[in-house]
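ok trying again, last paste got cut off:
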Amino acid sequence: MELLDFLLKNLTTFLQFTGFANATPGHYIMICVGLFFLYLGVFRKLEPMLLVPIGFGILIGNIPFFPGTQIGIYEEGSLLYFLHFGLLKGIYPPLIFLGLGAMIDFSAVISNPKLVLIGIAAQLGIFAAYMIALSVGFSSSDAGAIAIIGSADGPTSIFLASRLSPELMGAIAISAYSYMALVPVIQPPIMRLLTNSKERVIKMPPPRAVSQLEKITFPVVGFLLTCFLVPAGLPLLGMLFFGNFLKECGVTKRLAATAGGALTDILTIMIGLTMGASTQATTFLTEKSLFIFGIGAVAFSVATASGMLFVKFMNLFLKEGNKINPLIGNAGVSALPDSARVSQEMGLRYDKSNHLLMHAMGPTVASTIGSAVVAGILLGFLG
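nice, full thing came through this time. structure:
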């Protein structure tokens, strides 16, 4: 009898610590979300480098557990807690920007500086999101963190949220990266709606050749100008331009290859996994999270439309032969390089000989800089 009581007591204790005993409906909902992300990444091949780590991270973060066992991402002392530290303190995003800089080619911006204006115009999505967030009751700091989703720049969203609204960072980061991955789904209908058949086949003159001296000079000049203007953007802009200088100076090829290769891959895994794990149902599934996803969708659409409409406005003042194809206006959002690829695919759909990729890289690269500048402005005012 004592043996039976002993076994029953231990069995009860064991069952108390299982995931089944600690699960809530929210855990199952988030597990389904994680499986959906994995489906999009693996079978639909929508940004697998982002969605696969995030999707699996969501599964990891939503395995139910008995409180106090130092397993969850929000329990001090757990492995996930320490990995999450890089997000909470804004360590990972600047390092990602270092890798981006080592991969980016600024030639399109240097050869045709007016394309920068498209990237600037698309930042309207950030300010639209800010106003919407304020109108639905978010504080000014929370609204600033949410607004950056409009840039479709995941690292910048994480960096700003870590400074302005850490408690909302999971929802903001997941929203930003989700819309980055859905660029090929969201943008084409907007592009078709805002262009006519004549505009879609505009052929742009080939970009001029850019000298090596220009490529070396640009990151130095760009860094000094932007950071003197917005010192709060130094962590992102400094690393972005430093990474690009490593690439272009010609004497640090190994460092540039490491920054743009292995380092970026490691950080992508860390960010995706910890960001996904931060969607623990007990803290993530709130009304605020749903609002953030809705605001992000509006902001992303506004940013895409703003870039395209600004191109149409610019064309009113440009001569025939120098007009810009509005199909590159969508690249004003900094979902690098996916928005530029969408421009290319849409251009080829209407004219098999019209290659827009190099032109579209101008606005999307400019927007990467622009979103970091705006983040610095918001941090300066709200931080």
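cool. The chain has a mean pLDDT of 91. The chain has one domain: 87-382.
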